[in-house]
Amino acid sequence: MFNTNTITRFQQLETPFYYYHLDVLRQTLEACRTASSKYGFHVHYAMKANFNPKVLDIIREYGFGADCVSGNEVKAAIAHNFGKENVVFAGVGKSDKEINLALDEDIFCFNAESVQELIVINDLAKAKNKIAKIAIRINPNVDAHTHHFITTGLDENKFGINTWQLPEVAEALRNCPNLQFLGIHFHIGSQITDMEVYKNLCTRINEIQDWFEDRGFTIKVLNTGGGLGIDYQNPDTNSISDFESYFKVFKQFLNVKPGQEVHFELGRALVGQSASLISRVLYVKNGQKKNFLVLDAGMTELIRPMLYQAYHLIENLSRKSESPEVGKSESEESQISNLVSQIYKYDVVGPICESTDCFQKDVDLPESFRGDLIAVRTAGAYGEVMASGYNLRDRVGSVYSEE
Ligand code: LLP
After folding, report:
1. 187 lines ligand 1 (CB under 6 A)
2. Phi, psi (rounded to 5 degrees) for 122
3. What atom of ligand 1 comes closest to residue 272's alpha carbon?
4. Residue 331's pLDDT is what?
5. Whose CA is nearest to atom 4 of ligand 1?
6. pTM (two decimals)
7. Which residue ranges form the domains of the chain, and what is each CATH number?
8. Pocket residue to mutate for ligand 1, from 198, 265, 277, most atoms within 8 A of Cβ
9. What is the average pLDDT score of the chain?
10. Is 178:131 a contact under the CB 8 Å cutoff?
11. Contact predicate 20/380, CB 8 Å
12. How large is the average pLDDT for residues 246-261?
């Protein structure tokens, strides 16, 4: 992924920064477009995963719509030419200001998450003499089998409307003349790699759409959300998610009726492998029990390991030829065994004044030194966008492969 020229380029640059592998981004988008268009599916990019302006512009080139969760994301989608008619707006706590903005922009659809929100959207639309198009986000109680911090579709989660509240929803829809009911929306969690989960989701969606149709509602839009996972362990050998299998599950198991549209909201699977966080070793601390590599990047730049115990592959780019690798030929293996004495275990930590500021414990790396360049891989989704200014640190920069 990083050739000698790229590493030489990094040596001239101030760290830390996000490095965007734009070729990986383009290949991923192409794969998704090919697999989804086979069935006429509509894909909205879940902008929350990464709203770097260059990334947005490239994604737009592939014709995807936008899935937004704040008024500012709606504005960004429109500014980056996603087209207001391709914008969906979800979120359990949309403010009146944000709803008004989306009404003014005539977006494609609000994904409404509570009965109270339906009534608020109706009232605000009425005040503007407008009709708001809405889908109901339903919590289907399907287990996503992912980390509990990124599970959203169980009864105990705050998201969506639970199925036992559907009679109340039906009544609200009948009493809200400024709402146009488009369909139903789901999102059960993120980093889902088991396709069986999506099969279960399809079964629930089929039951729920029947419930609405039995009561005289027409469903035009089936929005299944996002969540498709990526391979954090093998970013080089498996950089593109299996979009073919993913969309095929919906083609096979979702009961799509004539005139219905199927929508998706993918974030991580579109951008996750397209960036690495590049930092330098500031200090090597050799203790009695532990060796620490103290980087110039920490939880302020990439919080996923600290917040979700997420794994990200860590590489020392300055000693790349010495890195331990699996899958080598026998002769290479014997060369590697000669290097074993140089392989160290390090806790790779950031500079922030918090014990939790650790990217990973006991990482096998070649002996590392102050000034070495370190790559934290698969950081394109929920990386740069979740950076914070804690400790009054500088905002992390971005560098692109096509510059
Ligand atoms: N649609 C809705 C309504 C969502 O809430 C999300 C993500 C998506 C779509 C896109 O999901 P994706 O395809 O990216 O899995 N910060 C966490 C992930 C939070 C996901 C939030 N919602 C992480 O770093 O793992």
Report:
1. yes
2. -60, -45
3. 14
4. 52
5. 187
6. 0.94
7. 4-17+273-400 (2.40.37.10), 23-272 (3.20.20.10)
8. 265
9. 93
10. yes
11. yes
12. 98
